[in-house]
Q: What sequence folds into this?
C-alpha cells in the first residue's frame, strides 16, 4: 500500500464514519418517534443540531482540561475508526488489531472524565462516576466476547477475522459458529451505547444528562459528533466480529444499521436500572452466557 | 417603576473579508431556526399545554424542537405562566447561564401583563422588563396549536435575524438591571459577569453601563468557594471545597 492511499484512507474512514453516524442518530430518533407514534425529526436534523451548536456565539469554557477532554473524547473515536476495516478500506486495521481497538475505545470515556471533572458540577461528577462504573460493568462480558472470537479464529487481526468469515459464507459467520458469544456481545453493546435499561449515566430526569450537564455550544457539539462515532464504532465492531464484515457497502451498511437498531428498539421499551442493578446484571447473565460460549469455543 | 426609553443601536456590521461569510451566516441562521433546544421553566398552568405539544398529537420534534434539561445546553427559555418575585430571580440566573444566541418565550397572559395575578403583591407583571422576551404567546392558556404557531413565528424571526433579544440584554443591561434591582433590592447580583461578556463579544452599547451597574459594582460581594459538607456517622465533617 502506498503512503498516499494510506493517508487518504486515514482521512476518509473517520469522515465516512461521521456521515454514517449522523444517519444512525437520525435512525435512533426516528425509531423513538415511531414507537411513540410521532412523526419524528426531518432527515437533516442531526446535522442541523451540530451546525447550530458550533455556531453558538458564547462558548463557556471551564478551563484547560475541559477543552482537552472533549478533544480526547472525539479523538479517541477518530483513532478507533482507522482501526475498523470497512469494504475497500483497511486503514491501519491489520497493523493495530483487536486489542488496540478495545484499548482505544476506552479513551473517550477517560477524556470525558477529565473534562467533566473540571466543570465542578456535582451532576457531572456523579454522571462520570456512573459512566466509568458502567464501563467496568460492560467491559467484563465485552472482553470475554473479544477473547472468544479471537480464540475461535486464531488471530486478533480484524482483517483476517473478516476474511475467514467471508470465505465460509453465512455458515462461517461468527454468529453461526458462536451464538452464545453473539448474545453476550449484544448485552455488552447495549451497555456500551448507554441505552436503557443501562442508561445510568445520562439519566436526564435524574442527574440532568450527567457528563453533558455543563456542556454548551461547541463542547456539546463535540459530544454530538462523538455520539455519531460511538454508534458507528459499536455497530461496525459487532458486524466485523459476528456478521462477517462487509462484502460490499450495501450489505455492510444494512448489517450495521440492523445491529444498531436492536439496542435502540430495546431502549425505548425499558425504564432505567440503578447502577448496582446494572453491574449485577452485567456480571451475571452476559458473563455466564459468555463463559458458556467460551467453553464451547475452546472445547 | 419608571419607563426609560433608550434608543436601540443598529448592530455594527464588521467588515467581513471572507466572500463566503454571508453564505455561512445564512447556513448558521437556518440551522439555528431548525434546531431549537428548549428549556421549559414551567411555573404556572401553561405547562399543561406543553406535553400535548411535545408528544404524539402535535409532535414538536418534527420542527427540530427538543426539550433539554440544563440551561447550558438550551437555546430557548420557555416561561409558562406567572413569575413570582422569588421565581424571577431563578429565571434570571437560568437565563444568564444560557449560551447566546438565546431566546425567551413567554407563554400565557400572566407573562404579558400579570394576567389573573395582576393584583398580587408577589408576582412580576411584565416579563420583558426583566428579560428580553423574543416572543409572547398570549392566552389563558394557549392551546398547543397556538404554541406551535408561536414556535414557527420564532423560527421565521430567527431565520431572518430579527430575533436578537439576547443582544438587547447586553446593550441595555443597565435598564434591565435597574428593573431587577427595583424588585430585588440594591444588593441583587448574579454570578454571571454580563458586562464582561458584552465587551468580550463586542456587544457593549451605551446602555450597557450606567447608574444601576455602578450600584451593582458597589454592592457586589465576591463569590466565595462553596463548602461541601458530608454527614459521616453523625459528625459533620468538611470534606472538600468546590469553587465556582
A:
Amino acid at each position: 500500500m502506498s503512503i498516499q492511499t494510506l493517508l487518504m484512507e486515514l482521512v476518509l474512514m473517520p469522515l465516512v464514519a461521521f456521515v454514517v453516524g449522523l444517519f444512525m442518530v437520525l435512525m435512533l430518533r426516528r425509531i423513538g418517534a415511531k414507537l411513540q407514534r410521532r412523526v419524528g425529526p426531518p432527515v437533516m436534523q442531526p446535522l442541523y443540531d451540530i451546525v447550530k451548536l458550533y455556531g453558538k456565539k458564547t462558548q463557556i469554557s471551564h478551563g484547560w482540561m475541559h477543552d482537552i477532554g472533549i478533544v480526547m473524547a472525539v479523538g479517541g473515536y477518530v483513532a478507533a475508526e482507522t482501526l475498523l476495516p470497512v469494504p475497500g478500506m483497511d486503514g491501519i486495521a491489520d497493523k493495530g488489531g483487536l486489542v488496540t481497538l478495545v484499548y482505544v475505545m476506552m479513551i473517550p470515556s477517560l477524556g470525558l472524565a477529565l473534562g467533566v471533572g473540571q466543570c465542578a458540577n456535582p451532576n457531572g461528577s456523579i454522571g462520570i462516576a456512573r459512566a466509568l462504573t458502567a464501563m467496568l460493568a460492560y467491559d467484563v462480558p465485552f472482553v470475554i466476547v473479544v477473547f472468544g472470537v479471537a480464540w475461535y479464529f486464531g488471530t486478533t487481526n480484524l482483517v483476517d477475522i473478516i476474511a475467514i468469515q467471508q470465505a465460509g459464507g453465512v455458515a462461517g459467520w461468527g454468529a453461526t459458529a458462536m451464538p452464545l458469544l453473539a448474545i453476550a456481545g449484544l448485552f455488552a453493546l447495549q451497555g456500551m451505547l448507554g441505552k436503557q435499561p443501562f442508561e445510568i449515566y445520562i439519566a436526564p430526569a435524574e442527574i440532568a444528562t450527567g457528563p453533558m450537564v455543563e456542556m454548551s455550544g461547541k463542547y456539546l457539539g463535540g459530544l454530538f459528533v462523538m455520539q455519531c462515532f460511538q454508534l458507528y464504532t459499536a455497530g461496525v465492531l459487532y458486524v466485523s466480529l459476528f456478521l462477517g464484515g462487509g462484502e460490499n457497502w450495501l450489505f455492510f451498511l444494512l448489517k450495521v444499521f440492523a445491529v444498531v437498531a436492536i439496542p435502540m428498539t430495546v431502549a425505548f421499551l425499558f425504564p432505567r436500572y440503578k447502577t448496582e442493578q446494572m453491574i449485577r446484571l452485567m456480571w451475571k447473565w452476559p458473563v455466564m452466557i459468555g463463559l458458556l460460549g467460551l467453553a464451547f469455543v475452546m472445547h | 417603576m419608571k419607563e426609560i426609553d433608550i434608543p436601540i443601536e443598529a448592530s455594527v456590521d464588521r467588515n467581513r473579508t471572507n466572500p463566503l461569510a454571508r453564505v455561512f451566516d445564512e447556513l448558521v441562521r437556518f440551522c439555528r431556526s431548525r434546531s431549537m433546544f428548549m428549556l421549559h421553566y414551567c411555573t404556572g398552568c401553561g405547562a399543561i399545554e406543553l406535553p400535548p405539544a411535545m408528544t404524539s398529537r402535535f409532535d414538536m420534534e418534527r420542527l427540530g424542537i427538543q426539550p433539554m434539561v440544563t440551561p447550558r445546553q438550551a437555546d430557548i427559555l420557555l416561561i409558562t405562566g406567572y413569575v413570582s418575585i422569588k421565581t424571577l430571580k431563578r429565571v434570571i440566573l437560568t437565563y444568564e447561564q444560557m449560551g447566546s444566541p438565546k431566546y425567551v418565550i413567554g407563554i400565557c397572559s400572566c407573562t404579558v401583563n400579570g394576567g389573573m395575578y395582576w393584583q398580587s403583591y408577589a408576582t412580576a407583571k411584565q416579563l420583558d422588563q426583566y428579560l428580553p422576551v423574543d416572543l409572547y404567546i398570549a392566552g389563558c392558556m394557549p392551546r398547543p396549536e397556538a404554541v406551535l404557531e408561536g414556535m414557527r413565528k420564532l423560527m421565521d424571526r430567527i431565520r431572518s435575524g430579527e430575533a436578537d433579544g439576547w443582544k438587547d440584554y447586553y446593550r441595555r443591561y443597565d435598564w434591565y438591571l435597574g428593573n431587577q434591582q427595583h424588585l430585588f433590592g440594591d444588593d441583587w447580583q448574579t454570578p454571571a459577569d454580563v458586562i464582561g461578556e458584552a465587551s468580550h463579544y463586542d456587544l457593549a452599547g451605551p446602555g450597557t453601563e450606567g447608574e444601576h451597574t455602578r450600584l451593582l459594582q458597589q454592592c457586589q460581594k465576591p463569590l466565595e468557594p462553596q463548602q461541601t459538607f458530608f454527614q459521616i456517622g453523625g459528625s459533620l465533617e468538611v470534606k472538600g471545597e468546590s469553587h465556582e
Remarks:
- Chain A touches chain B at residues 29, 33, 36-42, 44-45, 47-49, 51-52, 55-60, 120, 122, 204-205, 208-209, 212-217, 220 (CB under 8 Å).
- The first helix of chain A runs from residue 3 to 35.
- The radius of gyration of chain A is 19 Å.
